[in-house]
């Protein structure tokens, strides 16, 4: 079954500053904890591919498929995960006094793995976004 997962975090900072941190596809390890190594290559079709090695030595490969001024979309092309056909968009939107950092994810998952997969993805992105929030809160003091 195809499911959608949406994660949001408001951050009190300037849109450009937040995007300078989370926007570079190849620099995810600066705000997404648990990544010990990032390798970048260009695929045969000219897209950027990042190979992420996590602290537990798991490796996931992502391919950037679209990039705009304040969002990018990528898909997982390799990794041992309980779901398939992962596509996510990470971006930011301006609010009155802050920005909203978001991640919209689509996956194919079996009913047996649905709850576990949703919780896993929500937890890792909520933690990553809280880390971004903490980075900006500590910089404003």
From TrEMBL:
It comes from the Bacteria. Pfam families: Polyketide_cyc2 (PF10604). SUPFAM superfamilies: Bet v1-like. CDD domains: PYR_PYL_RCAR_like (cd07821). This is SRPBCC family protein.
